[in-house]
Structures are given as C-alpha cells and as structure tokens.
C-alpha cells in the first residue's frame, strides 16, 4: 500500500484508509470510546477493532459492498435489504447499552432551533420548512428505547454475494433510542426500498413515523451538512426528501 485515502474529513472527525485498515480520528474522545464499546456489544457483524488510542480507532475493513449511496439508486437486491432489516431487528432486540441517547424533548428543541436557523437565513423556502416541521413532529412521541446504531446511513451497511449482512460500520452515535429512527435513516432518500427492509425486520412498523423521521433528520442535519462542505441539495439528497414529504 503506497497511499493514504481520505474517506471523509471535516473539522470534527477524519477517516483514513490505509490498505485494509481504517483510521478514525475524532476531536471528541468520548465518541471514540462509545464506538469501541458499541462494537463490542452489538450482536451483528461489525468491523474488527485492531487498536485504539484516546482519539484514534483503527478498524479492519469489512467484506462485501454497501447497500448504496444517498442520491443514487441502490444496486442491492431485495433479499439484501431484507437481510439488513433482519440484522437491525437483532440489534434492536439486544440489551440496552449502558449510556443514554437523545430524548424527545431534546429533539424537539433541536428541531425548533434548526428550523429557526433555516428560516432566518432563508436557506429553504418557508413553506417547505413549515410543512416538514409539521410532519416531523409526529416522530416526537414517547417510544420504548432500544439499542440503536444512531447513524445507520445506507453507506454503513454492507452485504455479500449471498445477500447476507457482512458488516455494519460507524457506531459513534450508538445509544438508546427509537427503533424507527434507524429504519428511517437507512431508507432516507430510498423510500422505494422501505418495503424490502421491513420484510426482513419482521414486525409491524408505523411507516408514517418513519416518514416523520425522514423530515426530522433532513431538517436538523441541513445546517451541519452545509457548514461541513456537504451538499444536501444534490439530487436524491435531503432537499429532495423534504420536497417529496407530504
């Protein structure tokens, strides 16, 4: 290996790839600690921890291919999505991690703060923000906490040629939380794959709440994405999710 690949880099954290090893460097040491403990507790395929320093976590690459990318059609089969649903169900059925997660009250305050910023800076049309905020509020109800991944983006779930989950990566946001938040995060921008995911998840799910989480996540993440060099207005990404909400 004669080069270092920068996988993602911004002011909070950087991930580098060197051969089959990933180095995660985080400005917040507690996120490294949470990720290491979550990897040890999660009852699903995860990367092997090679070593850990206070601000750095070295992980082995997982086999397989990610389910897809935000803004692009998923190339994964319905069976692969169903396998992902089954793995997430296993995670949600596991004992709770010992640290807490975000509360509905905290998320309510965050939603208000981020919507106010979007409106004050005229980043999005007022009607779009207002409509999606109304939809998002449905997610802010009491829920039974489960072991959630917390950042279950489509690029974080890998499956192999036999349509089995081979690895789930990036556990720094793992905590106690709402099961439907994980399902919504994975299907953000891929509404057409929600049925395949739920076929494997294997329990009744209120899809209106999943849709509420799509709006809530898109609204609350918008400022962060803009300020860290990402483009939520790219085709198929957060802006399109907000436009499609009804």
From TrEMBL:
**Could you tell me which residue ranges the Aminoglycoside phosphotransferase domain spans?**
22-203
Q: Superkingdom of the source?
A: Bacteria
Q: Which InterPro entries match?
A: AGP_Transferase, Aminoglycoside_PTrfase, Kinase-like_dom_sf
Gene3D superfamilies assigned: 3.90.1200.10
Question: Which PANTHER family does the UniProt entry name for this protein?
Answer: AMINOGLYCOSIDE PHOSPHOTRANSFERASE DOMAIN-CONTAINING PROTEIN-RELATED (PTHR21310:SF40), AMINOGLYCOSIDE PHOSPHOTRANSFERASE-RELATED-RELATED (PTHR21310)
Protein name as catalogued? Aminoglycoside phosphotransferase family protein
Its organism's taxonomic lineage begins at: Bacteria, Bacillati, Actinomycetota, Actinomycetes, Kitasatosporales
